[in-house]
Amino acid sequence: MREAAMTPALRLEEFFAGRTRCWGLFEDRFGTLRRQFVIDLDGRWDGRVLSLAESFRYDDGETGRRDWTILPLADGVYEGRATDVVGVARGRVMGNHFRWRYAMDLKVRSSVWRVRFDDHLILLPDGVLLNRAHMSRWGVTLGSVSAAFRRVEGETQAIAA
């Protein structure tokens, strides 16, 4: 498969160990820009588990936080858990491409919607990690998230395995 040969190889536990910043936006299913955001991520790899704390800032002033626990398994498979993720997020890395899917309880105005995400992350040679995620509810596409991640240099928190 072509994806498996794409470089640079993506290892989530390496890319997200330390500080990372993300810039992104959400477009509805008609292509209308609805929201922009910045996420500061703090990752810690202990040789077995990647702990990832995300702090969100939206263009409308809202803030949020999500804490992930991500486990690398055999053959490039990863499992992730977070408080607003329903069950387990599961995905697989092939070369520089990571795809994972999960359900999430998302606050929408005064209610909570259960939505599904289909995320594709691609590591580019310059160290930028691009993310394109499609969001749906009851099988109907609600919109998409486009984002770019870049490591904040000099602040790695990896522990030698």
Automatic annotation (TrEMBL):
Which domain of life does this protein belong to?
Answer: Bacteria
What InterPro entries does this protein's entry cite? DUF3833
Protein name according to UniProt = DUF3833 family protein
Species per Swiss-Prot/TrEMBL record: Azospirillum oleiclasticum
